[in-house]
Predict the structure.
Amino acid sequence: MPLPVTPPTTHVVLPSCPISPSKASSSFRITMGNEISDDTLTACTNLFSSNYGVWGQQASTISKHTIPGKHVKMTGARLRAQCLSHPEHTVLVTCYLQKRYLSYNFCKIHVLISYKLAGVTQLVVDKQVCQCYIATQLLQSLKLHVLFSRVYIVGLVSSHPAACNALAKYATADIKNIDLGFIHEHASGILGSSPISYLKAAQLTGALFEDNCNSGTISSVFTKFFVDHTEPLEVLSLYKKKDQWCLGELLDGHKFLAIFPITPMSSTVPLSPVTPTTS
């Protein structure tokens, strides 16, 4: 049976941002994976290539095409392969301001044992509107979608503390007091079922997963994706100064791993066992 698609667009008022008046109206739209057009995918790849970041100093160890200081680029084919491998279980949330893309988020639903998991596979925000709560609004809008009505776990792998914090807000959790035991319990299964190849093969690192860890990391994944961490580290220092952080340090080639339990909005009945989807 086909799944319902595209709930009504929601509207929010953004705080003052560099590119817009203080009360500019933004629109958030949710689209099922099998309804994403090539034009939308192109807009997402352009936003990624302009805003995701630049390659770090060790990027040349990845390939001859990953040059330190150059922007990390995305193609439509690669984005489709990474984020739309199972379009019927994938949603895309986009944020617009005056027909301009400001942010997008791909999220894939799959089954972990007998519970639905929502994995944030890619989250990108225009660098000109950072700290405008757009990532938080993107994730919150997912609660409106039927696919998320019986999701019990949410997770993401990201080098940016603000993305982890946005997901914590989705789960009504406190970023400084995360249930680390829950992450330890579910990390291996979640990474193993990831649709993204470099995450599936990634190594869990940090005090949660390694004995005698002295790197300062707590819940991290070594992805070998050597993106420059200058801006995320600046944001991380702000969280730490306010005592608002518990996931540890961010090392080169690593990303944070954040996983949270959540209470579904429209169902309190445990999910019956379902055959897991394959990646």
